[in-house]
């Protein structure tokens, strides 16, 4: 069966990433009434990991009425969201199933109250520590006719508890290693994340921690050396990557035959180059939000990659998104995950680069080429929080793209290998 996917981001079942079984919801909230016969919240799990969705229902509501559900982030409660639902005949409102009458999002969305949270002070959601690394709680309150009838507290477990980092300063490489703390037996695919490739954007730590939380040993590689170096040259020596590759393959629990490279934005090209250049030791590549060809750094021409000090051929500028400019990604033995945003404010022709890649490497089994026509550049961040989401109307399609992309990433990482020797 061919599992290659070329698709456009749209609605997905939120449980696809987490495997949440909503049929087994457990009571974790308390209602305004005593006992368990009145209106009350039911959650699929509590606490729940910040990188996974949580199923939320309110049961025993008065049919035919409207219920307002208010969400407030603790501590402080300065981040809030709210939605109004019509109560059906069975008295159950399921946020993943039911379409709200009024909400800052459209359609049924089990996590809509979370990623649409906005600060009452106008503060932007820019902290990956607050919205990923740290644990937090969201208070939910259900009101009917202006009167509170049920409330609960949703506890979200942060990445720092379940995927702690270990600093790496070995053999000339600098980075952070995130080793899964789960009790899963056997070896798992290892991942090298190219971090520090975009000025002012350090999304690699969040990405690496999320991958480790999902069960995959991940090295967040400081691509151009230690942070704080004066005027670093934005060229990657192949020897640095190979050292990082050897280091990761030597770690306990890492499947040395299934190493993935991961890069976003300007790091996407490095992930594709590394996987294409070393197909004997790199299995697959995850490279959303960037070019599929190797672009020379600007404004002063310099190599994007060197091998033994020699330039690897690269293209000047991102304008010529043609198959001839695409890296030899057909050499990559395992899955390739690509993605583009139709409203990318940083790489306006990102989908042209994806199309050129698809022309050179038509989707194979395990590949995923995601097109998100209404999303913006940071569609590759993990979903379910307001972190760096654009303003409406682009917020919802960008969140949808995040959900879809990370489901594709998980699929690629967990799929059995169809390549001999891997």
Q: How does this structure look, described?
A:
The protein has 422 residues and is of the alpha/beta class. The protein has helices at 15-18, 112-115, 129-133, 159-162, 204-213, 238-249, 268-277, 350-360, 395-414; strands at residues 5-8, 30-31, 40-43, 48-49, 56-59, 66-74, 79-86, 93-94, 118-119, 136-144, 147-157, 165-170, 173-178, 188-195, 218-222, 236-237, 254-262, 284-288, 305-307, 310-311, 336-341, 368-372. The model is unreliable at 11-34 (pLDDT under 50).
For the structure shown, list the relevant keywords.
seven-stranded mixed beta sheet, 22 strands, 9 helices, nine-stranded mixed beta sheet, alpha/beta, 422 residues
Counted by DSSP, the helix tally is 9
Q: What's the number of extended β-strand segments?
A: 22
Q: Which structural class best describes the helix and strand composition?
A: alpha/beta
Sheet with most strands: 9 strands, mixed
Mean pLDDT: 89
CA radius of gyration is 22 Å
Side by side, the strands of the main sheet go: 1-22-21-18-17-14-15-13-12
Residue share in helix = 10-25%
Q: What is the CA-CA span between the terminal residues?
A: 19 Å
Low-confidence stretches: 11-34
């Amino acid at each position: 069966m061919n599992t290659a996917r070329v698709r456009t981001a749209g609605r997905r079942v939120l449980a696809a990433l987490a495997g949440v079984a909503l049929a087994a919801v457990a009571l974790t909230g308390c209602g305004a009434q005593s006992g368990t016969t009145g209106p009350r919240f039911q959650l699929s799990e509590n606490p729940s990991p910040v990188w996974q969705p949580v199923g939320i229902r309110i049961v025993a509501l008065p049919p035919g009425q409207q219920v307002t559900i208010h969400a407030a982030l603790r501590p402080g409660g300065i981040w809030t969201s709210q939605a109004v639902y019509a109560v059906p005949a069975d008295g159950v409102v399921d946020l993943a199933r039911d379409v709200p009458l009024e909400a800052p999002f459209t359609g049924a969305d089990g996590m809509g109250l979370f990623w649409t949270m906005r600060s009452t002070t106008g503060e932007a959601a820019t902290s990956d520590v607050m919205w990923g690394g740290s644990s937090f709680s969201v208070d939910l309150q259900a009101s009917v006719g202006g009167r509170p009838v049920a409330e609960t507290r949703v506890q979200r477990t942060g990445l720092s508890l379940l995927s702690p980092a270990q600093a790496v300063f070995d053999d000339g490489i600098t980075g952070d290693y995130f080793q899964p703390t789960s009790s899963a037996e056997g070896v798992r695919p290892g991942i090298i994340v190219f971090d520090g490739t975009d000025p002012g954007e350090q999304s690699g730590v969040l990405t690496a921690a999320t991958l480790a939380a999902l069960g995959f040993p991940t090295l967040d590689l400081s691509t151009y050396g230690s942070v704080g170096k004066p005027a670093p040259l934005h060229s990657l020596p192949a020897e640095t990557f190979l050292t990082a590759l050897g280091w990761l393959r030597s770690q306990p629990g890492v499947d040395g035959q299934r190493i993935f490279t991961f890069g976003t934005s300007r790091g996407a090209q490095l992930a594709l180059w590394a996987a294409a250049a070393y197909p004997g030791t790199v299995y697959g590549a995850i490279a959303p939000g960037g070019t599929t060809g190797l672009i020379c750094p600007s404004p002063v021409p310099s190599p994007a990659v060197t091998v033994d000090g020699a330039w690897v051929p690269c293209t000047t500028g991102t304008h010529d998104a043609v198959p001839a400019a695409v890296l030899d990604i057909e050499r990559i033995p395992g899955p390739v995950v690509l993605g583009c945003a139709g409203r990318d404010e940083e790489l306006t022709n990102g989908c042209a680069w994806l199309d050129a890649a698809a022309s050179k490497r038509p989707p194979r089994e395990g590949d995923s080429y995601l097109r998100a026509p209404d999303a913006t550049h940071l569609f590759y961040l993990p979903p379910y929080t307001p972190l760096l989401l654009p303003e409406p109307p682009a917020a919802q399609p960008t969140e949808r793209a995040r959900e879809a992309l990370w489901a594709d990433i998980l699929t690629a990482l967990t799929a059995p290998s169809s390549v001999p020797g891997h």
